[in-house]
Amino acid sequence: MSRGLVSARSFAKKKRKPSLKKVMNKAGIRTPNVKISLSAKTKKIITRVTMIIIFCVFIFVFIIRGFFFRAEYTIEKIKFSQGTIDYYEDIELFNALTTQVKNQNYFMLNRFKKHDILHSIQATHPFVTDINFQLETGNTLGINVLYKEPALKIKYREKEYGVRNDTTIFELQSGGALWLAAPVIDTPQYASGAVSLESFFFQFSFKNFTLLLPKVYEAIPNIRRFVYLVGSRRVALFTTDEKVIYLNLQDIKTLETQFEKYHKLQKYYPDFDRIASIDLWSLDENRVIIRKW
Predict the structure, then answer these.
(1) Which residue from 249, 250, 243 is spatially nearest to 271, judged by alpha carbons?
(2) Do the domain assignments include residue 22?
(3) DSSP code, position 14
(4) Which residue among 87, 112, 147 closes a domain?
(5) Strand 184-186 versus strand 169-172 pairing type
(6) Could you identify which of 192, 216, 251, 265 might form a hypothetical disulfide with 269, taking C-beta atoms 3.0 to 4.6 angstroms apart as the criterion?
(7) Buried (b) or exposed (e) across 54-84, using 16+ Cβ within 10 A?
């Protein structure tokens, strides 16, 4: 090939392979366009089914409203069970519950609102563990309140508080089995202005109290007043035979040593009945301080 001449092959177009559809058409095989469409009969059936479903839902709602939302299910009166009142009659608690349940529908209240009401009550009355509702005649709702007894009670500034742990402290009204359930830790007069209730367990923990208190009452059963000398580990026990006994609650071993000394005094000291006060730990393990009448 001489220079300057261009071969015709370089400009030749490459043939493309025909599509399957063209090949089939050329062979006489037609490929129809498929379109999916619903017949008028099928559309009519779907419409009817839809209308039936809507009608059934409407009837269901109508029946539910007619059965569950009748006037007799609206709460107009509240009646607390006798067990609730006897165990702990707290007017503030009863008023709070009455406010939240009155004029409510019983079924909506019992099924959907009870959990929120319980949590709301527990925020101010943490000794409440559960609330049971029972519909009675005459639009009356019966309420039974379940309580959890406090582990300890603290007498502070002429009021008494229930204690469940280091941080759960709540005021208790006097009267009822709940109020009488736990032993009372009294505080001296000086503590009313010097110590806050929140820092009560700073020096001596709630856990130590719950561990040692039963042992104290077991060893000296005639205690009528238990006074914690706040800011120390010492307590003053006022007994029914008009004695004051001072103990150190440092630990179980220390406590048992003091009990042993007390029981020896009780058994062997000839003028035990004339003793006004006994200090079982201010000196050493083998000595005590006694004051007579």
Answers:
(1) 243
(2) no
(3) P
(4) 147
(5) unpaired
(6) 265
(7) eeeeeeeeeeeeeeeeeeebebeebebeeeb
What's the pLDDT tens digit per position in 49-99?
888 888 777 666 666 655 566 777 899 999 999 999 989 888 999 999 999
Neighbours of 229 (CB within 10 A): 17
- Structure tokens, 269: 């000291």
Q: How far apart are CA 73 and CA 272, in angstroms?
A: 69
Last residue of a domain, one of 103, 127, 147: 147
- Give 195-214 pLDDT, tens digit per residue: 567 677 777 888 888 889 99
Helix, strand, coil distribution of the chain in percent, nearest 5: 40, 25, 35
**Which residues constitute the domain of residue 116?**
73-147
Residue 93's nearest CA partner among 2, 5, 170 is 170
Contact in structure between 290 and 278 (CB atoms under 8 Å): yes
* Structural domain includes residue 255: yes
Q: Are residues 135 and 174 in the same domain?
A: no
HSE, CB side, 13 Å, CA atoms: give it for residue 282. Answer: 10
Please name the helix (run of DSSP H) or strand (run of DSSP E) that holds residue 97, with its range, or none.
helix 91-101
pTM over 0.85: no
Number of domains in the chain: 2
